[in-house]
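Supplementary Methods S3. Complex input for the L-homoserine-bound model.
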Amino acid sequence: MNSCQSLGVGLAGFGTVGAGVWSALRTHAPLVAERSGGRIELTVTRILVRDPAKPRNLPSPPSAELLTTDWRELVDDPSVDIVVELIGGTTTAFDIVAAALKARKPVVTGNKALLAERGAELFDLSRRHETPIHFEAAVAGGIPIIRALQESFIGNRILSITGIINGTSNYILDRMTDAGITFEAALAEAQALGYAEADPSLDVDGRDAAHKALLLATLAYGFPIDPSQIDVNGIQQVKPSDIRFAKSLGYVVKLLAVIREHPDGAVEVRVQPSFIARSNILASVHGVFNAVAVVGDGVGESVFYGHGAGAHPTASSVVADLAEAARALRCPSGHRGFLPYRSNGRVLPAGDTSTASYVRFDVTDRPGVMAEVAQVLARHGIGISGTHSPVNPQNPDADFVDMIFLLHTCPLGVLRKALEEIEALDCINSTPVVFRIESLG
Ligand code: NAP
Ligand code: HSE
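Predicted complex, serialized as structure tokens:
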């Protein structure tokens, strides 16, 4: 470890979040030092980038000598005490984090894909080398939900966690709803604002939210979860007409993560576009904001709300983790990072999860179509609470129309079987689109 007062930070990645951390430390390192009674001074001593010649549009950019394109140089640099991984992805990022842990340098990361996909290997290294991984920035940007689950809820059994945990998707849905712009235009805005992942399909197909849901579930229930166990659907299939129809019924459409413990101990973990009642607190979460509602058996419901993405909110979480890592280096008191604490647990199969649902069929409009669909649903014991077939004012006699069914609560597995049969009918032109209708506390 650096023998001088200051601890050296190796910043792997200088994009949206990395540059945010650089700026935050320039502004607030003195505040962190003051609040820690002078014990924590943080200085960036090395920065990893892909392209050192890239213009960095900052009031005080780092000097060229700090930059490197060789991650080993950063990890091995004796002036680096703590490694911050903010390059994204699951390959080079894995190598950096693994090498840092083996060198017993604490790691701070915002990389939920890495921890969700390869967390088992990394937490194992963390345990073996007694070196923590901190990841507050990996879930819900600036909201301190990781620390809350690890520390503040330690005396509660977690009954459920429900959240809007992808800022990009929430931003897109909002812009489609309020400004009436297209999905593509809204996504381009989210990218320009630095909210989206380098590969934005992670945001819109729900995988980013699923990675975060996996981390929240592991924190709450202690056992490692494989991403393939999570039922995931994204927002690509949401049409403005779905949003309008939801609104007419008193709902809003949100990409929702649901984590819930069932009485037999199985844990439900899923992510999908959902109708939620306008009166629910999560319905008021707009733009890039996220919210996470945690229900503990002692505390009841607590809702955490804040910026879910973007340079400065995310940097705020990274700096908090840096301070925590620095505190542990200064006053070693055992391993402080999170480690899965149970070796096994059961994820509820997606087919066994039950909600009411909204199903949109693309049908050839002819007499009897609605009855044909209804007959199949009835055969599978699925109750119908409403139907609707919006007329296209531009073309009231169109041959192909959307037909909406609102369905009573049933297991997803039963619904999927019925939909397979319905999709095979002559009158159905494409795979039906399903959104959950959530009944939240
Ligand atoms: P970004 O803007 O794309 O920045 C990535 C940075 O990493 C760039 O500086 C890039 O170098 C560098 N880099 C990428 N691959 C590299 C490689 N192989 N070798 C060396 N340098 C490499 O990404 P970001 O938005 O800051 O996100 C970083 C991480 O934080 C991701 O894991 C993301 O999921 C997570 N995160 C992001 C947000 C957010 O709001 N953006 C919020 C929470 C968590 P160049 O600058 O030279 O291109
Ligand atoms: N792309 C992510 C989001 C960044 O939009 O939520 C924050 O994790």
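The domain at 350-437 is CATH 3.30.70.260 (Alpha-Beta Plaits). The first strand starts at residue 6 and ends at 12.
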